[in-house]
């Protein structure tokens, strides 16, 4: 190349080259070789970069086996500055080695049984493998296994098996969920999946525990028969909540639970009650609707807002629409990504969204108004760690002297900010100290009216002195009601009473500080303790 025959590099370069050119010294910008060297250096374009790309386990999700082979071959040539007159056997050996390395274990084992000698031959074998499974374009055959480990969820697929969908579309639905199961990469370390029929009466086709390999799940789906009857989606959802998700049926402790509900058209029954039970049980409900009611059919739809009422949260994330059962390949990946978005599973039952958090506050004369404000801030700091909502954590409070006052019921505030403001606004009573009577009052007036709640009950008692009545009997009654008790003492509060009121183990449920200013140090410890108790009880 003759220097000076080209236009100025600043005129012909763009993107990364332009950025590197601008950063160069003016005395160097006329030399093409120096410009090339600057671009390569600035963006770390060198043999080691290509080596790392060649050895990477990350593969483009939409690449065919032949495209993957071509990509590896190109990266290899860039890495070793491959000369076509060189030893092609070396390249074929290394590319074949890397091609096999990025395949999923079950695919790799199948391919190696045929002993391919080139990566091109191995790619052809992978195509045969995926074609035989009748899922072209949807089968994930290579890449990082981390995807499966990141998608550790227990899934119930509620398939429409009613007269509404009919036999033909039912078969198309089975094809779609087969592709979904393959894309999810069902496996021991990944998602587990079961199927429930939505028809006149719900029926479980298979449970989470029955299959942990994609081929077995696909085979079971293929063998499913059409049932018919009305589209009683609500009944099927209740069945899933009450019978499907259980330890004996394969539900794994501590993992998100997901129900993917397919509705062709509209349901025959009401979904609201079932959806509420699902949310209370910590199940993330996704609704997949296929085709909408025509204008002349709207009169037949029992509830036109059934989607909004059924999903985990009406925020758009938990609803999914497909116009028909034809040409559905393009919907497999987006739905898979939603199901595997564990960080967005807002209805998963955790300690932060599944507790009734009660505070029992000493308002006696020895506390004083200034210290009482510190107590309220201490309470608000603990409550702030929880997801307070109508379907999440709830907060209540009772203040006591010789008398008791229900300051805040669990049902009073359904938003966090309102609940925190209400806690901080409690007025100081002043008076004597009767902690035992206060515990009895709190059981009867704060916790028992909400006995039907599935949330865990927690009571945090905060007092600064000796009670004039017995605390042991009322504390035992609280524990027998399933209430976990934390006792927090300040100043003159007797340690014996604090330990008597606290749940077991006493050491992790009893706290004491000499000054009210020391309460803040206990906030995070108590929150972690509540979560520990919650997880141990699951």
What is the secondary structure topology, with strand pairs?
Layout: H1 9-12, H2 15-22, H3 32-42, H4 47-55, H5 65-80, H6 88-102, H7 105-112, H8 119-132, H9 146-150, E1 154-160, H10 166-184, E2 192-198, E3 203-206, H11 214-222, H12 233-244, E4 257-264, H13 272-280, E5 283-290, H14 306-310, E6 319-322, H15 329-339, E7 355-362, H16 369-383, E8 394-400, E9 404-408, H17 416-424, H18 435-447, E10 456-463, H19 472-480, E11 483-490, H20 495-501, H21 506-509, E12 510-513, H22 523-537
Parallel strand pairs: 1-2, 1-4, 4-5, 5-6, 7-8, 7-10, 10-11, 11-12
Antiparallel strand pairs: 2-3, 8-9
Protein described:
This protein has 538 residues and is an alpha/beta fold. It has 22 helices and 12 strands. The protein has helices at residues 9-12, 15-22, 32-42, 47-55, 65-80, 88-102, 105-112, 119-132, 146-150, 166-184, 214-222, 233-244, 272-280, 306-310, 329-339, 369-383, 416-424, 435-447, 472-480, 495-501, 506-509, 523-537; strands at 154-160, 192-198, 203-206, 257-264, 283-290, 319-322, 355-362, 394-400, 404-408, 456-463, 483-490, 510-513. The chain has a 6-stranded mixed beta sheet with strand order 3-2-1-4-5-6, with helices on both faces. A 6-stranded mixed beta sheet has the order 9-8-7-10-11-12, sandwiched between helices. Helix 6 (88-102) packs parallel to helix 8 and helix 12 runs parallel beside helix 13 (272-280). The chain is elongated, with a radius of gyration of 32 Å. The termini are far apart. The model is unreliable at 1-18 and 134-138 (pLDDT under 50). Keywords: Repeat. InterPro entries: ECM_Assembly_Org, SCAN_dom, SCAN_sf, VWF_A, vWFA_dom_sf. Residues 51-128 form the SCAN box domain.
């Amino acid at each position: 190349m003759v220097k000076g025959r080209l236009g100025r590099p600043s005129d012909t370069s763009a993107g990364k080259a332009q950025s590197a050119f601008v950063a160069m010294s003016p005395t160097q910008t006329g030399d093409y070789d120096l410009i090339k060297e600057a671009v390569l250096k600035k963006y770390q374009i060198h043999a080691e970069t290509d080596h790392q790309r060649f050895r990477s386990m990350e593969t483009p999700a939409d690449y065919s086996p032949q495209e993957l082979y071509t990509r590896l071959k190109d990266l290899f040539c860039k890495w070793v500055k491959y000369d076509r007159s060189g030893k092609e056997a070396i390249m074929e050996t290394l590319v074949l080695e890397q091609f096999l390395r990025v395949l999923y274990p079950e695919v790799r084992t199948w391919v190696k049984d045929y002993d391919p000698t080139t990566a091109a031959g191995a790619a052809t074998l992978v195509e045969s493998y995926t074609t035989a499974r009748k899922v072209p374009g949807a089968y994930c055959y290579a890449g990082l296994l981390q995807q499966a480990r990141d998608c550790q969820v227990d899934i119930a697929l509620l398939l429409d098996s009613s007269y509404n969908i009919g036999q033909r579309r039912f078969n198309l639905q089975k094809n779609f969920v087969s592709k979904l199961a393959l894309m999810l990469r069902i496996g021991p370390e990944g998602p587990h999946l079961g199927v429930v029929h939505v028809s006149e009466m719900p029926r479980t086709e298979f449970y989470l525990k029955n299959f942990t390999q994609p081929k077995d799940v696909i085979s079971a789906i293929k063998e499913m028969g059409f049932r018919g009857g009305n589209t009683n989606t609500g009944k099927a959802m209740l069945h899933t909540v009450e019978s499907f998700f259980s330890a004996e049926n394969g539900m794994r402790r501590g993992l998100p639970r997901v129900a993917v509900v397919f509705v062709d058209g509209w349901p025959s029954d009401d979904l609201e009650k079932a959806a509420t039970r699902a949310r209370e049980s910590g199940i993330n409900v996704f609704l997949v609707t296929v085709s909408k009611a025509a204008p002349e059919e709207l009169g037949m739809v029992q509830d036109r807002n059934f989607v909004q009422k059924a999903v985990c949260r009406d925020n758009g994330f938990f609803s999914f629409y497909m116009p028909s059962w034809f040409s559905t390949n393009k919907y497999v990946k987006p739905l898979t990504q939603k199901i595997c978005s564990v960080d967005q599973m807002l209805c998963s039952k955790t300690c932060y969204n599944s507790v009734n958090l009660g505070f029992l506050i000493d308002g006696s004369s020895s506390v004083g108004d200034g210290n009482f404000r510190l107590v309220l801030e201490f309470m608000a700091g603990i409550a702030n760690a929880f997801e307070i909502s109508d379907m999440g954590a709830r907060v209540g409070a009772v203040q006591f002297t010789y008398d008791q006052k229900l300051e805040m019921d669990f049902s009073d505030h359904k938003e966090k900010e309102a609940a925190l403001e209400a806690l901080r606004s409690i007025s100081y009573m002043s008076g004597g100290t009767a902690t035992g009577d206060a515990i009895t009052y709190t059981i009867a007036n704060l916790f028992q009216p909400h006995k039907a709640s599935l949330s865990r009950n927690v009571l945090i008692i905060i007092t600064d002195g000796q009670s004039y009545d017995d605390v042991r009997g009322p504390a035992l009654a609280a524990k027998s009601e399933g209430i976990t008790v934390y006792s927090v003492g300040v100043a003159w509060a007797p340690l014996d009473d604090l330990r008597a009121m606290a749940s077991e183990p006493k050491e992790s449920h009893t706290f004491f500080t000499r000054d009210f200013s020391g309460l803040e140090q206990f906030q995070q410890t108590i929150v972690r303790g509540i979560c520990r108790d919650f997880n141990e009880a699951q």
